[in-house]
Design goal:
Layout (H helix, E strand, L loop, with lengths): L20 H10 L2 E2 L4 H9 L1 H9 L3 E6 L4 E6 L19 E2 H19 L6 E4 H9 L8 H18 L2 E4 L15 E4 L3 H4 L2 H5 L1 H13 L5 E2 L3
Antiparallel strand pairs: 1-3, 2-3, 4-8, 5-7, 6-7
Helix pairs in contact: 4-6, 4-9, 5-6
Length: 224
């Protein structure tokens, strides 16, 4: 009878260092964390997910982790605004301008269409493509250079919010386009803030947006 070959199994190390909880929580308090940005940090977050969740709960925050899409963030727990003893918000709510809200809505719809096509996992858009998304909602004959300036300003705000990131020119593999035209990647975390139920009412919302765009004055909205 032939003896079975010897195998060597490394025993678990009981004293192996554990990820530092503080190093996981602090970045989350500053903004969204992405798997693609730091694979080691992401693995540590998944390992200590329950502890992180308990930790931020003390601060009246909920941890949201989407393992499939590869992002995590914290958001304020629902509160009774009429309560006299409500806690102050650690995560500040940011009112968004009407134009930025419209842009987020259009990018979210574009992301849904992109996902339905079953193509690549990254939605890459040039500034020209973003301009075309918005143009349909503007009066005919709108000033082109002014529109581009407005789109640049609004996309800057969306980048700041973390829903889009600006890519280095040429990283999207696109061929001919105006030199140095900005290129953006729509980040998938936008799906967490503009959900499927919101999209179900999208046409009605866009009709309201278009009426507001054509009005002489535009107000502010609480967000997309």
């Amino acid at each position: 009878m032939t003896p079975e070959p010897l195998t060597h199994t490394t025993p678990p190390q009981p004293n192996a260092p554990q990820p530092d909880l503080t190093r996981l929580v602090v970045p989350l308090l500053k903004g969204v964390q992405y798997r693609e940005d730091d694979a080691a940090q992401w693995a540590a977050l998944l390992q200590l997910q329950a502890r992180v969740r308990d930790y931020v709960a003390v601060l009246a925050l909920d941890l949201v982790v989407d393992e499939a899409e590869g992002y995590a963030f914290v958001r304020a727990q629902p509160v009774d605004e009429s309560s006299a003893d409500k806690l102050p918000r650690l995560v500040r709510r940011q009112p968004l301008s009407f134009q930025v809200s419209l842009l987020l809505a259009l990018l979210r719809k574009k992301l849904a269409e992109f996902d339905a096509s079953g193509g690549d996992t990254r939605l890459i858009l040039t500034r020209s493509a973003v301009v075309e998304l918005v143009r349909v909602f503007l009066p005919t004959g709108s000033n082109e250079s002014k529109l581009i300036d407005q789109i640049d300003t609004q996309m800057g705000k969306v980048v700041e919010l973390g829903f889009v990131r600006r890519l280095k020119t040429g990283t999207d593999g696109a061929a001919a386009r105006p030199a140095q035209e900005p290129v953006y990647e729509v980040r998938r975390i936008l799906k967490a803030f503009v959900d499927a139920q919101w999209l179900a009412d999208f046409d009605e919302r866009l009709a309201a947006y278009q009426r507001q765009l054509l009005a002489p004055e535009t107000g502010a909205t609480d967000g997309a």
